[in-house]
Amino acid sequence: MKKFASLLTLILSAGIACAQSAGGAPPPAPAPANSAAAPAASAAAPAATGIAPPVAITANSTPLELARAALAAQGGDAFKNLKNMWLSGSVDLYAPNSAQALPGKFSLITAGERMRLDVNAPPAFSFKQIYDGQQSYSSIPGVQMPPANKFGLPVLARYDQAGYTVSAIPDKKKLRGFRIADPEGNSTDFYIDATTGRVMQYLIPFNGYTFGIENSKFKEFEGVLVPTSFSQRMEMPQGAFFAEYKVKDVKLNQALGDDVFKIE
Questions:
Q1: Residue pair 160/140 in contact by the 8 Å Cβ criterion
Q2: pLDDT of residue 8
Q3: pLDDT score for 9
Q4: CB of 233 within 8 A of CB of 226?
Q5: How far is Cα 29 from Cα 17, in angstroms, rounded to an integer?
């Protein structure tokens, strides 16, 4: 169970940590993963948005141009200036060689480098992970996670900053590909829709494993594109771990309570 929880943590933290801090708004305390608290915005009723029309992508578009198009599709400055993001919903977890899903609920709050993840999958386990920007806490000893801002969508917001590189990778069928690497060498491979510029897939190498994320549905909230249905896959020697997520509630730029990222 500890190994399963560890893999779940890595998948969640790598796959859906997508808020980029623009300031120090210290965070109401988060509701538990199974809370029925009313959200500021819900996946069923997105707020009006102002995402710009897609940037034109051609067969000759450079990796930098693809990254620029992907960021614009994600919401551009609205995405870059996110102070925090709070996602919650349901998750179905599949162990290798198993068709039996372990259903659960999740709540993920990210604010820059800070992150809090709560997973409730009764009767199997209840799990909590916190990273306050300097140190981490796990309700299961020995289970650690990568910093929330090193992989996935957060690096897209910084592709043009000093020390970041954008390079070409092979396309996948109709999806255009590019890689973003940070100054420390952490990298994410992005695959975007050639018409809309939306990020449909991305791959994250971490600790010798590769995490694959595939988005299937999106909705716009306050000018930001948020994946509301996505699947994740991680290849392991014992087989592939697979998870399917449905985001029910989305909150952006909340006045979060001081204890959200507090490590007891």
A1: no
A2: 57
A3: 55
A4: no
A5: 18
Say which residue the tokens 């309700």 belong to.
Answer: 139
Whether the per-residue pLDDT at 46 is higher than 50: the answer is no
**Residue labelled with tokens 């399917």:** 244
Nearest-angstrom CA–CA distance, 98 and 107: 25
Q: Is residue 31 scored above 50 in pLDDT?
A: no
Amino acid type, 171 = D
What digits encode the pLDDT tens for the residues 71-90?
999 999 999 999 999 999 99
At 191 the three-state DSSP class reads strand
Residue 262 lies in a domain: no
Q: Where are the extended beta strands (E) located within the chain?
A: 41-42, 85-94, 102-111, 114-121, 125-131, 136-138, 165-168, 175-181, 187-193, 199-206, 209-221, 224-236, 239-252
Which domain, by its residues, includes 111? 2-23+67-252
Q: Are 32 and 253 in contact (CB under 8 A)?
A: no
In a domain, 261, yes or no: no
| Residue 89 belongs to a domain | yes
Give the domain CATH number at 206: 2.50.20
Domain count, the chain: 1
Residue 260 has pLDDT above 90, yes or no: yes
Q: Residue 145 pLDDT more than 70?
A: no
Domain membership of residue 137 (yes or no) is yes
At residue 129, the pLDDT reads 84
121-130 contact pairs (CB < 8 A, 24+): 121/91, 121/93, 124/1, 125/1, 125/5, 127/5, 127/8, 127/9, 129/9, 129/13, 130/261, 130/262, 130/263
Cα dihedral angle (59, 224, 188, 95), rounded to 10 degrees? -120
What's the rounded Cα separation, in Å, for the pair 87 and 116?
11
